[in-house]
Amino acid sequence: MTLKCCKCGKKTRKFTQVCESCGHRFCKLCKGQKSRHFISTVICISVPLVSALLSISINAAPRQQPSFDCRKAAAASEKAICANVTLSQLDFQLGRTWQTLLRAFDTDSVQETQMKQDQRAWIARRTTCGDDSTCIGKLYRERLSALDGTDPAHRFSGEFDVKDVGLFALFPIGDRYLVHVQTADPREGAWECDLSGEATPSGDDLEVSIEGSTFHAHLQDAATLVVGDSDDVHAAASKFCGVNGTFAFTYLRVRLDVAAKTIHLQP
């Protein structure tokens, strides 16, 4: 009896442990044993073929599914998204971005309702595209850039954080923003600020109005939002925070890595 070397293809006597032609040590493939991953009637598979099959198995990532159940897709636009890899990925990205912002406003039911109404209005616009993938893709890209702050016209949008202290979240609705600010004493928890209101942009500045109190925030650059230690901020903090509480901080934009499902503070 002989074995056929899976490396060079030469036949060698079965009672040896290595190929007499190339010195390859006989493996399970050479001995005709079945692999855990491939069931085949072929006794010996060549190394190049095995490498190719492994490459396909490892690199073939599952297709990105949209944020909704395609089995329940009814509108032409939904069916077009399910049938298109790029649109499915855009829908997934938008779904995660919108949900991340929604969670930042989860302590204010009125603002949550406004955000959901705004999203439903956008979905209604998407529906008017029918099955036009170009129209749908354009709407998705515009919506994503409006929510994540990459659109210059909505550059305040998104979530800004101070590590271990709190957040400053802004959601665009028309030419204004919904605002939610939440900070807390990082050491002893002696105070906590929780503010919800609206903001109007003017260049790189925001005028924030919350229940009769007004203060300003400044977008220092695309990744940095600064709330200065001003008299207006002190007045608002005395109203909405505990003793010695404050929300006067430099906040860094949070970027959502939708592929890895993680978030990162901008450096």
Can you tell me about this structure?
The protein is an alpha+beta fold and 267 residues long. It folds into 3 domains: 1-60, no CATH class; 76-148; 156-267, Lipocalin (Beta Barrel), CATH 2.40.128. It has 6 helices and 11 strands. The protein has helices spanning 47-59, 76-83, 85-104, 109-127, 133-148, 231-240; strands at residues 2-4, 11-13, 158-162, 166-173, 176-184, 192-202, 205-210, 213-221, 224-226, 250-257, 262-265. The strands form 2 sheets. It has an 8-stranded antiparallel beta barrel with strand order 3-4-5-6-7-8-9-10, surrounded by 4 helices. A two-stranded antiparallel sheet has the order 1-2. A hairpin with a 7-residue loop joins strand 5 and strand 6. Helix 2 crosses helix 3 (85-104) and helix 4 packs antiparallel against helix 5 (133-148). The protein is extended, with a radius of gyration of 29 Å.
In brief, what are we looking at here?
The protein is α+β, with helices and mostly antiparallel strands and 267 residues long. The protein has 3 domains: 1-60, no CATH class; 76-148; 156-267, Lipocalin (Beta Barrel), CATH 2.40.128.
What is the total number of structural domains? 3
Regions with pLDDT < 50 over 5+ consecutive residues?
33-47, 49-61, 260-267
Bin the helical content.
25-40%
H and E order: EEHHHHHEEEEEEEHEE
Q: Give the helix/strand class.
A: alpha+beta
- The assigned CATH architecture of the largest domain is Beta Barrel
User: Rg to the nearest angstrom?
Assistant: 29 Å
Mean pLDDT: 81
